[in-house]
Amino acid sequence: MNRLGIRLLDVVVASISLSLLSPFLLAMAVAVRATSHGPALFRSTRIGRNARPFALYKFRSMKDDASKAGPRITAAGDSRVTSVGRFMRSHKLDELPQLLNVLKGDMSLVGPRPEDPKYVASYSRDQLRILDVKPGMTSPASLSYSDEECRLIGEDWEKTYISNFMPAKLAIDAKYLETRTVLADVKVIMATLAVLLLPERRGRSDA
User: Fold this and answer.
1) What is the pTM of this model?
2) Which sequence spans correspond to the domains of the chain?
């Protein structure tokens, strides 16, 4: 794996994206503040490379006290999600501030999605190897489970996530990392853009 090439890709793409999207990001921040109480950005602790915690940035898509009133993942129909938040989450717009995490070096554009410490605590020894790399904004597993929130239904949805979804996603990304290249990352990024622009592709992965 060419870490220098991947870091260069991360910095160039994140810098250009933030520059081009800055007016839109400002508009989204204003919309969040204007429609619900609380800050525009939400900082959440996630586990990064070498098991180091870091502050993950997102546009706040839930009520300000949501983290104190329910699970740390979101299922279909979660009442904590605001009206603007529902729109942002349906198009993954709430995750755009993570471009700042990429520039800081906490994350990469492509890599296993950063997980909450609560769920990392249940990783097996083999699954903990996923922490040898930086987490990412997208990954093959993210593409395969891009409709995850809609699939987490029923009373035991959190149990379903821990016992079924999480292990499957870790396995997909672990396999990808075995042969990861800069070109492979570019393909995942392009596939992610296709999913965002063509919602009917959600839940599929051609990367």
Assistant:
1) 0.85
2) 3-201
